[in-house]
Write a structure and sequence with these properties.
Largest sheet: 7 strands, mixed
Strand content: 5-15%
Shape: globular
Radius of gyration: 18 Å
Order of helices and strands: HHHEHHEEHHEHEHHEEHH
Helix content: 40-55%
Number of helices: 12
Bound molecules: uracil
Number of strands: 7
Length: 252
């Protein structure tokens, strides 16, 4: 299926969408539904008040990244030793995609495949993510993809607060440089860290937040790896994507 897509053959947009929805495990008749549900939530911007993360963690002194352009920023990431993860990484995973993208997708942290290849979302979860993007008419290359952490936690354990604190300036600088029109937080870890909350992902998804004080709309959805384990939740992820599309359209 994918090779046919890639060759730009005569498959119409509807057929293509149908095939990608199938790849996501979503029946085509669901296409119409999210539009009404998106309207039902009214695209209300919810400022997340829950800055309830109790653990204040200090970052060690590191290189000032606030003014760095792309190349020195990437070098800073590749040579970073701020937290212990540097000693177990094969490669850091800086981020990939269009540096002028409207869409910034933020996941959790590199997994085994990403650690080997130095690129985010290249494993099975990445393949599903690509299919999800194509279902809304986006090629992977059109968006920018990054993670909360640039280095893989051993055995894919959850990021530790001190690791997040060390890594956050790199991501913040990427956000400043890209100036995306929308952030899509993939999964609990990304959503909770970006929104500085401990609210469950099931409660964070399905509405439009604002990313801190930037005015950038942020939509949280389930992580593709979770969707692989729980395909029954794909319908909600599809609704979140529709909400994101609609949010961008409204703000055009
Ligand atoms: N999961 C993530 O959150 N990020 C990746 O890059 C790969 C898997």
């Amino acid at each position: 299926m994918c090779s046919a897509m890639g060759t730009g053959t005569s498959l119409g947009t509807r057929n293509r969408r149908y095939l990608y929805l199938q790849a996501m495990g979503i029946q085509a008749w669901e296409l119409r539904r999210p539009q009404t549900e998106a309207h039902a939530v009214g695209h209300q911007v919810v400022r997340t008040q829950e800055t309830d993360n109790p653990s204040i963690v200090e970052a060690p002194e590191g290189p000032a990244v606030v003014d760095l352009d792309w190349t020195p920023l990437q070098t800073a990431v590749e040579t970073c030793t701020l937290c212990d993860l540097h000693s177990s990484r094969t490669r850091s995973v800086f981020g990939v995609g269009n540096r002028n993208a409207d869409w910034l997708l933020i996941g959790e942290a590199p997994g085994r495949d990403e650690d080997q290849q130095g690129e985010p979302f290249v494993g099975r979860a990445g393949q599903l993510l690509n299919a999800m993007l194509l279902a809304i008419g986006l090629q992977r290359e059109q968006v920018y993809i990054a993670n909360i952490l640039k280095c893989r936690p051993p055995n894919n354990r959850d990021p530790k607060p001190e690791e997040v604190v060390c890594c956050e300036p790199y991501l913040m600088r990427q956000i400043e440089l890209i100036r995306p029109r929308l952030i899509l937080a993939l999964g609990r870890i990304a959503a909770q860290n970006l929104l500085r909350t401990e609210t469950a992902i099931g409660k964070l998804r399905g509405r439009v937040h604002q990313f801190r004080d930037t005015g950038i709309p942020l939509i949280a959805t389930y992580h593709p790896a979770y969707l692989l384990r729980s395909p029954g939740e794909k319908r909600k992820a599809w609704q979140d994507l529709q909400l994101a599309v609609e949010t961008l359209r409204e703000r055009a």
